[in-house]
Structures are given as structure tokens and as C-alpha cells.
Fold:
Amino acid sequence: MTFYRTALLITIILSTTSTLADTWDISGHIGLEARGFWEQEKFSQQLQDAQTSAFLEPELEWLSLNESFRLKFKGFYRHDQQDEERSHADIRELYWHHKHESFDWLIGINTVFWGVTESNHLVDIINQTDAVEDLDQEDKLGQPMINLNIQQDWGLLSTYLLIGFRERTFPGVEGRLRTPIAIDQNLTLYESSEKKDHIDIAIRYSHFIGNLDIGFYWFHGTHREPRFIPSTNTFIPMYDQITQIGLDAQLTIDVWLWKLELIGRDTEIDHFWASAAGVEYTLFQIAHTNADLGLLLEHSYDDRIDTVGANLLDNDLFLGTRLSLNDVQDSSLLIGIMLDLELDSKSITLEAERRLGNNLKLECSLRTFSKVDPADPLIIFETDDHAQISLRWYY
Amino acid sequence: MTLYFAKIDQFSTNLAEYTIRYRYFVVICTLFLVGLFSSGSRFLEFESNYRAFFSDENKELITLETLQATYTKNDNILFVIKAKDQQIFSRKVLEAIEWLTEAAWQIPYASRVDSITNFQHTYGNEDGLIVEDLIENAPHYSNAQLLEKSRTATAEPLLRKLLITPDTHATAVNVTLQYPQESIAEVPEAVNYARHLRQKMENKFDSISVYMTGISMLNNAFSEAGLNDTKSLIPLMFGIIFLLTWLILRSFSATLTTLLITFFSSVIAMGIAGFTGIHLTPIATTAPTIILTLAIADSIHILITMRMSLTAGSTKEKAITEAVKLNFLPVSITSITTMVGFLTLNFSDSPPFWHLGNMTAMGIGCAWILSVTFLPALMYILPFHVKAQSKPSRDIVLLDKLANIIVRYPKPILLIIGTATLILITFIPRIELNDQWTEYFDNRIEFRRDSDQSLKYFGMYPIEYSVPATGPGGVSDPSYLAELEKFSNFLRQQSEVVHVYSVTDIMKRLNKNLHADDPNYYIIPKEKELSAQYLLLYELSLPYGLDLNDRINIDKSATRLTATLTNTSTLQTKQFLETTQQWIHENLPPHMQSIQPTSPQVMFTYIAERNINNMIGGTIIAVLAISIILFLTLRSWRLGILSLIPNGLPLLTTFGSWGYLVGEVGFSVATVASISLGIIVDDTVHLLSKYIRAKREQQLNAADAIRYALRNVGVAILANTTILSAGFLVLTASAFKVNVDMGALTAIAIISALILDFLFLPALLILVDNIQNQRRHNVQTEKKSSSSSKALASLVLALGIMSSHWPEVVTANELTPIQGNTPNERKGFEIVAKSERSDLGFGNSKVNLTMILRNKAGQESKRNLIITTLEAENESVGDKSLALFTSPKDIDGTALLSHAKILEADDQWLYLPALKRVKRISSRNKSGPFVGSEFAFEDFSSQSLNKYRYKWLREEPCGSEQCDVIERKPRYKHSGYTQQVMWVDQTIYQPRKIEYYDRRNAFLKTLTLKDYTAYGQYWRAHSLKMVNHINKKSTLLSYGPYEFNLNLSDKDFVKGRLIK
Structure:
């Protein structure tokens, strides 16, 4: 790990000494967030009704003259007033990138997203989820890596050497949306004897032919999602070694987007497959206005459906609609409902956002867990229905 | 999971029992269905046109058809006449040529005959210009006259090396044909008449030999080759297969059943093809061959298992049931995967390959069904005698020995075979794509023999260029003729070029003639009026059928230049074309930059590359799809992944061996992957399914499971490999090179598959099993996993860098512009075309753009973007563009990538920086607002010529300029406008104002373009203001300075490059 840090440092120093007509760019945002919970907390020591926090995400970028060299830094810090564990800092990105005509490579910390579906990001695997941020698994921790991409006419071949592992973040005792007993991260276990130093590999091929965009990957290394081993008064996270293959495909025909994500995973104790498939239909300029209305339908399935306590999305249906007003302030609204077809549970999400003025962005969201079946692992969030509002200032 | 296999076994056992019980019903039903479907084969016809090889959207085909629409079709028959005494200019020989020239007009569909005798020779005297046949009434010529004619003919640039060799040993008569293209009997009709003429000529004049070549002869050769193969190859194949099957099965009934199944499958597939109107090309006629060989594989697997059961002492009924049960799953998997493999041929650019793929897929489906229904039924009815033996047969003993070797030495086997494979793979880059289309046929075909003879004297492959002038009548312009002369001279200097036909030679000659044949005047006329007059005079004197319409277009704004090449390969032709395009780019004026070469030679040059690149993508997807099918049906995704190796490697080793041995491959290679993949997968599937059955049902360990698998399936795999490779080697006897290459390559692929499946796959299974066992016993993983990760990583990196030298591909979609019928429509089109063409060749550009949106109340908001554009290679294909948003800050980094199409929806991807996610979006929404502004997507995208229909309305002043007002209507679907009106100025031909009318034809908005600046010859407006009259909002686009000549290529406009 130190070798890579040094290499990075040297490259940073070298780059600062060669300021030809290149460009430096400083940007980022600072924000405030407030969450309100209207139901009584379920577990002791959880916060009562309001959770407030402030966060900042600075960004620094250096581009060489012809844009073939790039150095980027993106940091993140949140201070949460109620939950200690939710106050955390992270380097989301810190990398050196070199671009050639038919290949490019990157060394450093970066975030990589794979996937086509909206409700279940099944194939996305490179980065660890910053789970303490939000439930939708869209916030990620930076991942150190060496990445080589080869772009040819027959497609894009990407190879990743993932050096070092990031542990998942969890809410602390004061936090809502947590497990009944707080997770003790000091006792974290790893299947591999190298623990966090295990080097993981991923190789991905992606291409598009006409209307079909397709991607296929093979991953071998530490599973980003921990298992929990119950122990006296706590849960211990356990990170297994896995080999996983994934496929993502999207067929874009006129106003229909047909999406599919498939994974197959092999671990020490079992092997299984899971899928997420869906369709998005967009009505452009409805009722002769500028607004677009998108309708989403997605189904998630997990082959471990018969085993106990396995997965949240083992046979679930997502119905959603997205309204984009296409106005100057980029206002949009997303409403979705996730139905568990096995257990008859429902979860409703509502997200709205809009720009205020030139530099401010307002986001509101609402999440409810209604009618949760006692057998459903989601039962731990039963009383955690909440509304959230955040304001970001971009500079 | 065992439940799943049990269910399948239950189903197949029931199936076998039913077919045995109702065996007579099954047999009769089958015969009835076969009769029904096969009646469709009476509709089958052979395709006799090389155009069949190109899909309607093929770029080169469209260029060719545009040229032919402008000038003339260049289908031809070329008679090459050799004088036995090597002197064309003798009375007898000239008489023969005159006779042929006269008689050739009677060839059906002939529109023009050119020879040295009817060449319109011109000379000048005191009366002016004389235009007459060069040679008339030859038997009456004196020797002096013959000598003079000889000198004139060989000195005339339009004859020398085109219709007469410089040494006067051979001459040619060229018959141009115009087929109405209503029936496919047209070409054979013309060719037969021409052959009849040749026969007559050779009988009448014994001092000559006549060879026939040309495009029509080529077309005809395609169908003749197809017929030959069907008549001779198929019976031969049947014979070989019958013999081999009987030798292996040692039972007449089993052989008969196998043969019936294969015959029925082919016949049904051909029948369905007939019903769906497929025309057979020599490529599609290989479908029966492929169906045949695969149907046999299925039958042999079942029959051999049946024989093994009988040998062990089972009753016939039990043996059949057991055979069906054990083989149902693998036979089904094989059939499905092979069908998938063939259906990927639909990714090819060439229709005959679609037909091959679909016909073969149908035939394989039939074979599958027949082998699990008809075969058991018939085998129960017919006698099948087998000696019961107590000790295992010799084959089994050998297979056991093999299994033992593999179990004991898995690592060395993997190492040796793995290394050999890797070495072979390194030879793949040596393969060169090269086709010589006359060499598609071998010497058994008359066309090949005649063409070989013709090539000794004359060039063979014309490359046509339509060279535009600056406007109607512009061909008489001395500067135009000078450029044309420059171009002709350049072409003449190229080593591949034998002859150049350019109108400058006519003009120079006319100039000389009209100055009393003074050789000093053999130059381009200095004044435009003179050239125009000479041309008119000449044309008025030309007899019917020999006019200049095939050289100059109707409004005299372009001429056709033909360069005839010697015997070149597609590789050499490509180099020639590239050198020429480079020269054109550097030396000819802007309005000539749109010149594109065309001809059948050009088409075949690019089709190989196009096909290969399509097929590589298609094959990779097929291999992935097959792995998924395997994982789903075998219920083990690990085996699904493992199967990629014995499935993918044989193809790589085949091409590697070919690269080492031959090094050159034609466009038939594109199909080898699809064809052999199915067959390769068959071996893997049968072995893996037996392996799984052994492990799951019988709880055997890996080593014993391998033994079980090899014992049960080894003989069948060997049998199949022998029969299949023999079958494909039959194809190497074809007269059609495409089929020969395909047969050889496929045979090599099948044999490689055998080696990999017998040695590599079992060794791999043993090793994987060992690793798994070790993991189960140790909780701690060893250090070796990380070092193996590192090794793997470096291997991947090495492979990656090695692979970064694949050939480039260009796939484009071109549609012809609509020039209009009425004068106003044409005028409108020409003005806009001029405007468009002034922008041709800018290559690429980048500009910063500020967008100011203003609402009704006057409030403003700003957006900043950077737009990078890559120009498409020609004006009928859309540009690629990347719009990167930099402000407002919350959308900084959002990017929209578009691959524009002209009339279809664009391909678009959106990059969302917050998630680092690239999303492909629907681009049907051309009429929607671009980021909330008053510009719609269709206003913002490239305004290509072919997107609209035009009509000139009037002329009027616009600001300080004078403008042409032109109406334009969108041709593409889902536009938000019924029409637009544009003002184009008459000085720099740029649009100044555009008015937009919405779907109800109400006046919606106005765009004003200002601040035009020239960057070299390219004009760009820097201020665009769109005012919406209905909602009173407006958007102003302010452009910064444009940058051109950036280092950009197609690879910068892919979704991988959006992520930052």
C-alpha cells in the first residue's frame, strides 16, 4: 500500500512542477441535511425524531494541455449531530489518469459504476457502499485500484486490480435504519488471511451493437457485502471471498428501454445466481408540455430464495414513475414502490429535486416501510419512516 | 438440483416409452410432415447477381447505385478476341470484329456496344469536324490503310489498353447491359445468347479465339458454381457419410435411420426456405451439408448408447429408453446452442449469410426433434442385432487408459496444451484479409479460365469516380478540365492502373480536330465557351446508342472517370483507394472532396472487413449466450464459465494454425466461427453432462466421473469428429473458393475441439476439483491465490496490449438525398447542397458555448457547454458529437454523446457524474427541448442534406445581403415541425434566418444566425438566437472561438470516454 501512495505522491509533485498551459479546476459543494422520523424508535439509544448533519465534498482537478493526463481529487466529509458513526470522512477519488487513442489507464482511488436497472444495482461491485449515508446503496467509498481500459472496434475491455479493501460503514447506536444490536466493527472477520490487503481482480468486456448495450465481467476477491455472525451482544461482520460473474444488458428500442442484470456468485458455502430485469417506458412531452414521464417496472429475483434470512430482494417487484419537467431549473420527481412478492411487504419512496437560483440545489425525499411482514428482514426498519430534506451549495 | 435432473430424466423416459408405444403413428406422422414441408422446395431459385451479397443498407452498394442512376449501369460482357497469328489488324480479323460489334446489339438487354470498329473517330478538315466509325468495311482495306488504322487505334488514349493492346495482339468488344431487374432469368438469358454468338463467331472465323468476361459473366458464374456444388458435392457427401456411419455402427438399420433423419432435416429446411422466398447463393447451398453433419452427430450419440446397452444385455425396449434418457439433455443443449451459433450469422452485413444461418438453424431444430421421436420409433421397428459381450470392447479399454493418464497428470497436460494453444494464438495477427474475386472460382468454371486469359491483355477491375464541377454546365470550364487532367495523370502513374477513361481526352482531341488536326492543339481548350461548343458539335454527330450520357451527367455538372486496374487483390485495391483518397484530399479543390470510388471491386474490398468485425462481435455474444444456456441447463454456473475454454479455444487455435500455414483469408472466414461453434459445443456439452451426472447421481469423485464420461461418450465424440471432418473436407472440392476455405477451416476447428475436449477439459475439471477440495479442508486461503491473481493480471495486461492492433472498422448507413422533381425543388436542393458542401471536410471541431435562457418576464439563466464534433466520412452519414455541460455547477460533468443517424433515431448516451453512471437513452425525442431551452434536439443536431426535402421559394434582401428563401420539410420521423423556411445568403451560402412551423403548421419560432467568421474555408455563426413566438421565451447561444484539427477519432466518441 505504501508503494502506491509514494508513487501517487511523486506523480502529484511532478505534475505541479510542469504547469504548461494546462488547467486547474476547483469545485465541489457544501450541504446541510435534516431528517425527520415520526414514529417512536424501536431500539434503545436510537435518536428520537430529528437527525441533522452537514457535509462537504470538495473537488480538485488538473488537466494537461491536450487532456491526456488528468489528476483528480474528490473528498467527502459529513458531520452528523446525532449519530457518531455517521460522521465520517472519505477520499472518494484521488487518481492519476493517462489517456491514449485506443487505451487508457488509471492508478489511484476511484469510483466505478456498472449497471442498467434503477431499483436494484445488482452487478455493481467494484466499490464498497457507504451504507451509513443512505439506504439506496448509491453512495460509495473510494476504491484504490490500477485500471487499464482497451478500446477497440469490437468493444471495451477493462481490467481492474483492486488493491486494498474498504469496510462497509454502518450506523452507530444512536442511528436509525440500523440492526437491532449495533455492529462491532473492531471484530471484523475476513475469510482471506490477507484480510484488507487482499488484491481483488475484475475484468469486464462491454460493447454496443445497434440497439443493444451489453457488458460482462468476472470478479474474484473479497465480497463487498458482509455476512453477520451473531456474537454476545453484537453482530460481527464477516467478509467472504467470492468469485462472481455478471451480465448487464440494455435494449433501447424507440421509447422502450429493456434492462437486464444477472449475476452468478460462488462462495465457500454456496453458489447461486440472481437477476434484476425491467423495462422503462417514457412518454415524451406529455399533454403538450415540455415534461417527460417515465414509467418503470423491475423485478428482482435471487436463487437463494429458499434459504433463510438471505437477501432482501429475492422476489420483489418495483413500480416507479419519474417526471422530469425539463425546465430551466431541472426539476424532477421520482415515486416508487417496492413490493415483496413472497412476504407481502411494501416500501414507498419519493424523491424530488430542483435547482434554486444558480448554485443551490434542493432535494426532498420520503421513505416509508409500510406493512412489513415479521419474517421480512426489513422489519428492523419498521419504525424508521422518514422524510429528508437537503440543501447543497455548489461553488 | 438433483430434482431438476430427475425431472428431465422422467420426461425423456416417458417420451421414449410413448414413441415406442405409438411407433407407427410417429413414423407416419413424420413422413407426412416431411412431405408437406418439402413441397416448398419447388419454389427455390438460384440468385444470379453479386448484389445479393450486400444488404440494402450497404454503404458501397448505395454509392454504386447512385453512380449508376446518374450515368449508366455498368453491367457488361467483355469479349476478348485474340488473333491466332497475333495480328488484329488483318482483314479477316477486323471483319470478325465488325461482325461481332453488329451482332452484339442483339444480345438481350444490350444498351451499347463499344469496339475498335465502331469507335467514333474524329478528325478535322476544311469543312470542320468529321465524326465516323474508325473501321468500316474492313475486307476492302488496303495494307496501307490497315497500317494507318492500327497506328490511329493504338495512339488513341480511349482505345489503347482498353479495347486494343499496344502490340495489337488482342482486342476487346464491350457490351453494356441494362437489366430491368424484374426476373432473375435476365442474366442467364443474356449470357446464353452471348455464348451462342461466340460459338457462331468461332465457327465463322477460324483465325481467332474468343474469351468472355465481365460483370454479367461473373453474376452467371455465381449461379453456375452453386448448381455444380449441388449436383456433385451433395451425392458425394452422402456416399462418404453412409460408408463411415455403417463402418462405425455396424448395423444396416441404424445407418438407414441416421440417413433418413439427416435427409428429412435438410429437405424440411430447404422446403421452408422455398416457402419464405429465399434465393440460393453458393453460400446458402452449404446449409444442407452443415445440417447433414450435425443431424448425424445427434443420431450417433443415441445409437451408440443404445448399442452399448444391448451389448451389456438389455432388452431392445430398455436399451432405446436408456439411450434417449441419457442423451436427451445433451442433445437438446447441443441443438439449442448450435442454433444460437447459426442465428448469430444474422449479424453479418451480407444477406446470403443470414439465409445460411436461418436455414441451418431450422434444419438443426428438425434434426433434434426427429432424433428423439422418429429415431426411437423406427429403431424399435427395425431389427438391430448386436453381440452380447461380457468383457469391455477394445474402444472402452483405450478410453479408460486415456482417462487414467489424464487423472494422473492433469498439470503437465494443461501446461503443454495451454502453451501450444497460446503459441498458435500468437499467429492470429499474421492473418491478412484478402480477396480476389475472380479467384473465387477455380479452373473448372469457364468464367475463371476466360478471365485469366483476358487479364493477360486488358485490365479487369474498373473503379469509377464521379467528379463534380462547380455547377450545371461546369464540365466545360477549363479549370475543371485541368483538375480532371491532374487526377487522370495521377491515376495513370499508379502501378495498378492500366487505363484511365477521362473526358479530357475527348476534349483535347476535339480541340486538335477543330484546329485542322494541329498536334499543338492537343490540349484543353482555353475558353469555356469553346469546350461547350465542341462538346455540342460532337454529341450532335454521334450515332444512336453511342452518346456521352454514360460519361457526362444530364445537367453537365459532373463527369465519370473510370480507372481500370490490373489483377489486384482486395488488399492492394484498398491501398490504392486509400492513396487516391489521400491525393484527392490534398490536391483537388473543396467541391471535389466528396468524390467516392465505386464499383463491384470496391464493394468486395470492404465487405470482408465489415463482415469480420460484425462477426467478431456476434461470435463473442454467441459464446457468452451459450455459456449462459449451459449454466442454466446444467445448473452450474461454474461449469458454464469453464465451458468458455473448450468452446472458445478451438476457434482461436484454428485461426492461429491458418495464420501460420496460409496467412491469408477471404470473407468466408467470417462465417467459420458461427458454423464451427455449434459443432464444438456439442463435444463439450456431452462430456460435461455425463460428468455432472456421474458426480451427482452416482456420487463419484472427479477422477471416476471423468472415466465415466469418457467411457460413455468418448466413442460417440470420436465418431462424430471423424464423420464431421470428413464431411467438411468434401467442401474443399467445391469450385467456389468461399466454400473451400470454409470447409478446410471448419475441419481444423472440429479436430482442435476434439483434442481440447479429450485432454484439456478433463484435466481442467480435475484441477478445479482439486482446488475446491483443498479449499473445503482449509479455512485459510494460501498465498498462492494472490500470486496467481498477480500472474493472471499481468497475463491480461499482456493480452490486452497485444490485442490493441485489430483492423479498424467503418460501418455507416447511407441514404440517397432527394434532389427533387420540379425546377424549384432542384434549385432549392442545389443551393442547400452548396451550403452543405462548403462545410465538407472540416474533420473535427471543439467550441465553448454559453446558453442564455430568457423567460417571458425577462429573467435570465445561463448554461455553459463544450461541444466537440467529429465529422462523418461522407454526407449521408451522421456526425458524432459530445456535449459536456460545465455550468450550472450542479450539472458540471454531465455529458451527452450522440451518434447521429440521418433518418433513424440517433444512438445517445447520457453520463451522470453524481453516480458515475453511463445510461443509454431513447433518442426518439427529437422534438423535445434541449436542456429546457427553446432549441429542440433536432435543431441542435447536425443539419444533414439528406434529412429534408427542399423547394426554392423566392429571392429577397436579408439585412445587408441578398438571400434565397427556401422551404424545407423534414423527412425523418417524429419531427416537431411540418416545415421550415430558411434564408440562405448568396455570397457565402450560409443560413441567416430559419422560421419553424409546428405540427399544426402554426408559426412557432424564429432562429437568427449572426456573427459569421471564417476559419479557412469553413464558416461558423457565433450568435444564434431562437425566439418562441407563442410562449414569448427565447434562448441565445453565444459561441466562443472554434478549434479545428484536433487529434480526435471514433475512439474518442464512445461511452467509455464519457466517464471522468
Observations:
- Chain A has a mean pLDDT of 86.
- Chain A is about 5% helix and 55% strand.
- Residues 2-394 of chain A form a domain with the Porin fold (CATH 2.40.160.10).
